[in-house]
């Protein structure tokens, strides 16, 4: 019990220290960006100091157009991510469970996967114009591969003894996927989700910025057109915050659904 | 009822051809407790995997309950040596035991009852809601045994199930397996490399030769049905049988170690 308590407090202690250091680092970064333009290291017209960016950010929070744009971005991001997740999981489990199909598709996948999503921009503009649909295609394309690769690896990670056990007890193919393959692949799925979420965010903003579908990206473009440099930076900060929030959310889900997994077990020891 | 007829198994792949089982023929009548011993690498695990329908034979035939095995047969349960990997770490003990029943579509109340009964039979009545990795090795192996019992098999196969537990736990588990066999009346094929264990447990010991594997000796163990770690192992008849099996194994091992310095 003593050892457990010590471990728990060491874990929280370590986490506390890393959070403190992280906040300090961020603060230092903000100070550097405040000072650099003021002493003329960078031109103040193109790189406004932190304080001015924060003021511009506050102004944005007061505008309803900002909130509309934010919701549109979140919506595109979430829909794209959801489609990529479902497609990645279904196709990944199929590929992982059927070696013949995997062998037949491996080359095609190796060919398609490195194509940068942005290379599809001209194509989607011709197809759908400056719409959310266009941006969604980019988002799904980029996020899908992240998901697929992880799921295929996860499915391949099923322990041979666990597989034999399931076969010997005559579990149906569906029961094997549900009770053996899926739990094994889950840690990979979550990693895939984390990677896919950040890629999807990047492409949501890129799509809005380049194609002009509604959202934060388009607001950035508008602000730039009207020379509102501080607003541009304020909106960039917003995209950064979105990325951080997505990451935190993933970790929360991870700790909840993977409580049995060796990577999260240590913190659950208090139960025993 | 288990029948093995002229079983032959060759592993062929990755540029290596290994004859794992030469020519194996024996049968285990309904309700018998048979132990299989043999030198390491003689194909015991291979034999078990073919019987369980997890591996196709190269030639020959295996029958379980008078049906040729082509896929995992119904009414047959396996307890694997690697208990840690055979239990699912994402399921609690009770869920692990219930899973094969749930997959069969058995009603909740019924499978709960079977699981409770099986866990009580292996002395784990209070571990239902633990995860397997919270248990000791011996307890984990007992969960695997409980899962096999709850499945209500007619035939139970065990592959060196106690190779990785300490001597005391091992003795306890041996007595557990004997009581389970008596209580549930299954046909039991128990693979081990431990001669003492084989003689102590079985009604019969099948000694396999080194590769190419054949049955080197088929010995009836005529010890009393009531067995006990102390008195049975001190029985002169036990020592005699044990000596016979030991001598036989030394003999079948000899060709493999020919020329090697003693
Ligand atoms: N998947 C495989 N592919 C190729 N060869 C294999 C495979 N599995 C086992 N073998 C070979 O078959 C032979 C018998 O192996 P097996 O595991 O059945 O022996 P065993 O009697 O169970 O040994 P042990 O007592 O050490 O567990 C060995 O020579 C082994 O190298
Ligand atoms: Mg073996």
UniProtKB/TrEMBL annotation, chain A:
Q: Which InterPro entries match?
A: MetI-like, MetI-like_sf
Membrane topology annotation: Multi-pass membrane protein
What region holds the ABC transmembrane type-1 domain?
Answer: 70-254
Looking up SUPFAM superfamilies in the UniProt record yields: MetI-like (SSF161098)
Does Cell membrane appear among the keywords?
A: yes
Give the principal location in a single coarse category: membrane
Q: Which GO terms describe its cellular component?
A: plasma membrane
Places the protein is found: Cell membrane
Keyword set for this entry? Cell membrane, Membrane, Transmembrane, Transmembrane helix, Transport
Q: What is this protein called?
A: ABC-type nitrate/sulfonate/bicarbonate transport system, permease component
Organism encoding this protein: Asanoa ishikariensis
From TrEMBL, chain B:
Read off the PROSITE patterns from this record: ABC_TRANSPORTER_1, ABC_TRANSPORTER_2
Question: Under what name is this protein listed?
Answer: NitT/TauT family transport system ATP-binding protein
UniProt keywords, alphabetically: ATP-binding, Nucleotide-binding, Transport
InterPro entries, from UniProt? Answer: AAA+_ATPase, ABC_transporter-like_ATP-bd, ABC_transporter-like_CS, ABC_transporter_ATP-bind, P-loop_NTPase
- Entries under SMART domains matching the protein: AAA
Q: Which GO terms describe its molecular function?
A: ATP binding; ATP hydrolysis activity
Q: Which top-rank group of organisms is this from?
A: Bacteria
Entry keyword Transport: yes
ABC transporter domain location, by residue? 2-235
High-level lineage: Bacteria, Bacillati, Actinomycetota, Actinomycetes, Micromonosporales
